Predict the 3D structure of the following.
Amino acid sequence: MEHLAGHEGSGAAAAPFRVLGPLEVSGDRGTVSVASGRQETVLGALVLELNRVVETAYLVDAIWAHHPPKTARAQVQICISRLRKALSAGGVDAIIETRARGYVLRAPEDATDVGTFRRLVTEAHALARDGRKMPAVQTLRTATALWRGRCLAGVPSEVLAGTAAQLDESRLEAIETAMRLLLELGRHEHVVGELMQLVANHPLRERLRGHLMLALYRSGRQAEALDVYHQGRALLTEELGLDPGRELRDLAQAILTDDPALAPDGEPEPRAEVTHVPQPEQEPGADPEPVVVPRQLPPDIGDFVADDTIVPALCAAVTEGQVKGPLSVALVLGGPGVGKSTLATHVAHRLAAEHFPDGQLYCDLRGLGGQPVDPAQALGRFLRALGVPGEDIPHALDECAEMYRSLIADRRILVLLDDAVSESQVLPLLPGTGSSAVLVTSRGLLTALPGAQRFDVTPLSTERSLHLLGRIIGERRVEAETEAARALARLVGGLPLALRIVGARLAARPHWSLASLWNRLENEHRRLDELAHGELSVRASLSRSHAGLAAADRHLLCLLGLAEGTVIPGWLGAALVDDRTPCPTDLLEPLVDMRLLDITAMDPGGEPRYGLSPLARTFTRERLAAEIPEAERVAAVRRMVGGWLALAGRAHEKIYGGAYTLVPGRAERWHPPEDVVQRCLPDPLGWLESEQGNLVSAVELAARFGLDELCWELATTLVTLFEARGCPDLWEHTHRVALAAVQEAGNERGQAAVLGSLGTLHLYRGEYEAAGPYLSAALGMFERLGEMSGQALCLRDLARIERHHGDDDRAMALYESAERDFVRAEDVIGRACVLGEMAHITMRRGDFTRARSHLDVALGICRSTGFDRGQALVLRRMGQLLMHQQQSEAAERTFLEVLAMVEASGDLVGEGYVLHDLGRVNVDLRHVERAVEYYSRSARIRERILDHGGAAAVRADIVAVLGRPMTPVG
């Protein structure tokens, strides 16, 4: 909440009852806690009507508005009773009396800040009538400084909101009166900055806009004054469909025609401090001419918190030129709300007195209403601050820059340029010598600034976030709820602006717990609403960066809100907007430049991976809902999930040597550029694992948007990852999501594929009885559809169930049927896997020749397609065949070869199985210690992949070898 700066609280002691902001009460024993909700509402109503009766009916309306409960009057009485106890316990000089129709709060007339405000405003008007304008301004400053936010902010009452709004209006009227008096006193140059902020906060308020226009005009800034008028007219037309009022139109016309009536009544007072500095060119004994020393820095803050290293490093960079000669330019970069301006201002104050005694210049280059300041305007301000009369300032930019550099050539002046938009803004404002220095903050990179040292400001760590909160609300309060404080810091991503808002809200509500505020912020739909306090707003800060983007970049940023994963690959932006550029990362770079998108890592191919901060993600989703039609959102999700499916499918093909062991679907893929695919997939299983979170999120997103075909195809393709890396829970989760989607859509092929894969999952877990119904249902659907691949997969898995039950004959018949269907479907890898299982049955029957024949064919297929995991599976069966043939040493060599293969590929499932085999073969070789070691490793891995049945089987073998359990195994 803005007030007339510099006079906060002067001349007015804090009243016990304060409603000009959040409701606060204090007494002789400190702050009085008032419960939020009904008690706040009742007390607020009584304070606003101090020493006057407030009827019970009014209090009921204030609390419940439209539908009060039958017990409303009784609940009001309870509130009154509790308030009386709280006021008495707090030592407040006030009592609540009961009257026939209501209640009255009895207290001295100066017991409320409202009463103090009204008294001060009355005094100010009397002083102004007596011609004592400056004392009147000072009194108004004191009055408006009583505000700590919106009147009764946070009190949930529609009835009281009307009275509160009237008081807020009174405050603005007091500010307008003070501005008018200052203009009458000829202080137009003093009030320009303040009026700019006021107009930015209240853009539809014509009287403030008129005061700013007049102040600019009288400061020799006629063009800027007219620009302020045109901005206001455009805003009124857009927001309300109205033209400015006659008073503002007449003022604009008078400024346009240089109406003499606009001239101030007297000479303006000096704007900056004037000191006497002897100039070298003066004759000895001559009177020194006055030199203006500008002191324009914004105020520093007392609770500054930053990384330990950045402040001294920045100080050294700023002062380097005074030692080495060339001009020092330090560039402070960071996203919205990260604390760039606070850091730069803090450093500037730290260096001002010792290193830059000749003055400090400041300009907010973002400008009024977010419009970038023209460098000529900024130079004009600097020259006036340096004492150059308005009529002597050149009109040409280069002449202004020459005058500016000449004036400060031999002086030690620090120039702080805040929120620079581009290099073209900054370059004309650079001094010419190293005696001065420049400190620039920007959301962009500004890479073309010569010789600039760059400092990236990042969000605070969790520990520093807690330190900042402690500085604002008190260390004890943070220590009392350390975990809630950490959760709050994580929720806002350590963003200093958000942390300051959190701290301000908690400071204004001492009865709130940190956990209660976390609960409010946890709701993403309300998060940015909650992260606002007074004039601080995370949404407003992000909006300024958003507004600075080109239309296409804003559009892409909105669509990025659809991406559910925490990491965004470079190709994804192109998919969202359907751009076939060969360099898709170029589309995301403007968002990186504006610090709305972060580079979080580099992928193995050297391409950047991106991420949205938690609050930037919340903001993009807000803009997504507001700006992107639903049909366009669905199309963008279809392309994005289609991109994930295309890449996951290519990964599967590289692993299996083709699109084998998958039920084919009809989902439309979105294919990233081929060089992107090649960079992503040198290690296809590793890529699937690294993108696991994104891929699972894509399955969920497809289901949510009704894209059932994409959903089931991606879910079943991911079994390649889930099976190899031992992720049965994710396997089940994605398939339950996909099953719901295909069932709702009536997609029979999708239902069959998902049910069949869920059957495979139950087999993977050793749940043979649970697997049967899924596989039988899927087989029936595939037979109706004539889908050979699906039939073959189901028959293969049904054969495994028969083997588990000990019916090798039935299992062999099913395997033979599966092999025929795989041949018809041209799925050679499916056939190879079945041949391996058939070999296992035949070797157990003692038909080693036929078993070897099956394995030779299977191995040849796997080698021809490059299916390394299949080769490992077949070689493991060959090792088992050697064990059946009593060739234990050859079997061990084969198993060791398989172990090297699965370890290299990261196949945990295969590793668990072959370690078990190595344990068994070493038992045959009477290498007991080695056997137990292999068993132990197998048990650990199978527990890790949640194969508890397999781990139990391994432990049983350990018991068989040792005669007792080995503790601990894992």
Q: What stands out?
A: The CA atoms of residues 337 and 497 lie 5 Å apart. The chain is about 60% helix and 5% strand. Residues 3-11, 266-289 have pLDDT under 50 and may be disordered.
